[in-house]
Amino acid sequence: MTVSQQQAVQLITQVARRLDARGLSPATAGNYSMRLSQGRIAITVSGRHKGRLGPGDVMLVDGNGHALEEQTPSAETGLHTSLYRLYPHVNAVLHVHSVVATALTLALPRVSEIVLSGYEMLKVFPGVTTHTTTVRVPVFDNSQDIETLATQIARQLPQHPHGSAYLLRGHGAYAWGRDMDEAERVVEALEHLLQCELEVRRVKAGGNA
Ligand SMILES: [Zn+2]
């Protein structure tokens, strides 16, 4: 179910403050959006500090990411709109620049996915009911060419059955959900799981053992 523009602005500014407080998107990093009726998207304005968003810091774009107001939307708007086109059930998209999503993907330059197995927290991902499963979170190389990146991601995402998130190498994470609550749960769970994965790899490598 889509929300009104006023509800979307409120939900986006509230989640932005919580994600900022958790250190997931420092300063102007990250961008957040929600699907509205008639194909419109409410998305954060480019360059605003995400911990201090006000009503004027969320704007409307159309389904192709074109501004419907006299402001400039996030530079990564095309990655949001491609997710809404790909997944009709998705109504909220969150993009964070967390330290672990950024560092882990940069430290593993050749991997195309982070394989998460055996973690209780996997059950936070929609459709996952047991820890005895494997979720493969795709990793894409970062690019400043958002249009090409969005096309590449849209082509590859359907191959990931538990698709609720992906990572951009050295950059951050995208997560989405049926509503803002679900998208926020996925962001939080992904952060926890990546932190765990980093610790597991450190211990296996003998760093803390
Ligand atoms: Zn970003």
Description:
- The termini are far apart.
- The protein is built from 5 helices and 8 strands.
- By secondary structure, it is α+β, with helices and mostly antiparallel strands.
- It has helices at residues 5-21, 77-86, 99-107, 146-156, 180-204; strands at residues 31-35, 41-44, 58-61, 92-96, 113-117, 134-140, 165-168, 172-177.
- The protein has an 8-stranded mixed β-sheet, sandwiched between helices.
- Zinc ion (ZN) binds next to loops.
Task: Draw up the topology in text.
Blueprint: H1 5-21, E1 31-35, E2 41-44, E3 58-61, H2 77-86, E4 92-96, H3 99-107, E5 113-117, E6 134-140, H4 146-156, E7 165-168, E8 172-177, H5 180-204
Parallel strand pairs: 6-7
Antiparallel strand pairs: 1-2, 1-4, 2-3, 4-8, 5-6, 7-8
Bound molecules: zinc ion.
Residues 76, 95, 97, 171-172 line the site of zinc ion.
Q: β content, as a range?
A: 15-25%
Going across the biggest sheet, name each strand in turn: 3-2-1-4-8-7-6-5
Order of helices and strands: HEEEHEHEEHEEH
Share of helix, binned:
25-40%
Class by SSE composition: alpha+beta
Q: Say how many strands there are.
A: 8
Shape: globular
**Overall average residue pLDDT:** 93
**Which segments are poorly predicted (pLDDT under 50) over 5 or more consecutive residues?**
none
Nearest-angstrom radius of gyration? Answer: 17 Å
How many strands, which pairing sense, and closed or not: the largest β-sheet?
8 strands, mixed
The distinct ligands, each listed once, are: zinc ion
By DSSP (H or I, 4+ residues per run), the number of helices equals: 5
Termini Cα gap: 48 Å
